[in-house]
Structures are given as structure tokens and as C-alpha cells.
């Protein structure tokens, strides 16, 4: 089992959610986050004063899936989140040791 964490632009969330649903992934966790990478923020003007906005709003999506689903999930996220511009985001893939469904006590892939 793997955990996929994807940091994407907020306006791409619905497209990514739909793409994941199309490949059969149902459970996702979404968090509003802020950060920067190569984009390094930008400068804005407010009441005549210039200031730097270095933490940009992003969305973090977390998915746990079987090893067989990882490639399809990564492809779905990449294709639906891509704008071709700087700041499109990153995808991280991490190993999952075990999952336990609290309600039933199921373990492993049955708990997904």
C-alpha cells in the first residue's frame, strides 16, 4: 500500500477529484496549505505599499491506495493538475505499513 500526497493549485482540485473518481479511487483527504518552491512567491501592491507574498495558497491531497493503483493515480493527478506553468505542484509517494478502519477493526487493504 502507498500514500500519495499531492500539492496542487487550488483551482485544479475539482478536476483532480473527478479524475481520481474516474479511475475508481473514492477516499481522499484535502487540506488547504501554503508554501512555495521555485515559484518563490510574488510581489503585490496594497494601498500604495509593495509587499512580498512568499507563501502561496495550495491544496494538499492525500490518498491511500494499493500498489497496483499508484501508477494510475499519479497519472490522473499529473494530467488533471497540470497547467504547464510554474507552481503546478509536486506528488510524493510514501509506503504505508498498515491501515486500521476504526469502525470495524479491519486491517490492510480491506480497511481502504
Automatic annotation (TrEMBL):
Question: Looking at the record's lineage, which domain of life comes first?
Answer: Bacteria
Query: Its Gene Ontology biological processes?
Result: regulation of nitrogen utilization
Cellular component (GO) terms are:
cytosol
UniProt keyword list: Nitrogen fixation, Nucleotide-binding, Phosphoprotein, Transcription, Transcription regulation
Q: Which Gene3D superfamilies does UniProt cross-reference here?
A: 3.30.70.120
Q: Which InterPro entries match?
A: N-reg_PII, N-reg_PII-like_a/b, N-reg_PII/ATP_PRibTrfase_C, N-reg_PII_CS, N-reg_PII_urydylation_site
Q: Pfam families this protein is in?
A: P-II
Write down which residues bear the modification named O-UMP-tyrosine.
51
MF terms from GO for this chain are: ATP binding; enzyme regulator activity
Q: Share what the entry says about its subunit structure, partners included.
A: Homotrimer.
Family assignment from sequence similarity: Belongs to the P(II) protein family.
Query: PANTHER family from the entry?
Result: NITROGEN REGULATORY PROTEIN P-II, NITROGEN REGULATORY PROTEIN P-II HOMOLOG
This chain belongs to the protein called Nitrogen regulatory protein P-II
Query: What is the organism field in this record?
Result: Entomobacter blattae
Amino acid at each position: 500500500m502507498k500514500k500519495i500526497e499531492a500539492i496542487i493549485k487550488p483551482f485544479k482540485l475539482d478536476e483532480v477529484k473527478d479524475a481520481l473518481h474516474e479511475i475508481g479511487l473514492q477516499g481522499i483527504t484535502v487540506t488547504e496549505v501554503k508554501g512555495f518552491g521555485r515559484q518563490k512567491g510574488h510581489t503585490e501592491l496594497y494601498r500604495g505599499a509593495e509587499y512580498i507574498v512568499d507563501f502561496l495558497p495550495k491544496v494538499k491531497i492525500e490518498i491511500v491506495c494499493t500498489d497496483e493503483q499508484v501508477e494510475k493515480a499519479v497519472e490522473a493527478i499529473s494530467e488533471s493538475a497540470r497547467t504547464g506553468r510554474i507552481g503546478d505542484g509536486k506528488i510524493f509517494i510514501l509506503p504505508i505499513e498498515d491501515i486500521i478502519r476504526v469502525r470495524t477493526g479491519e486491517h490492510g487493504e480491506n480497511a481502504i
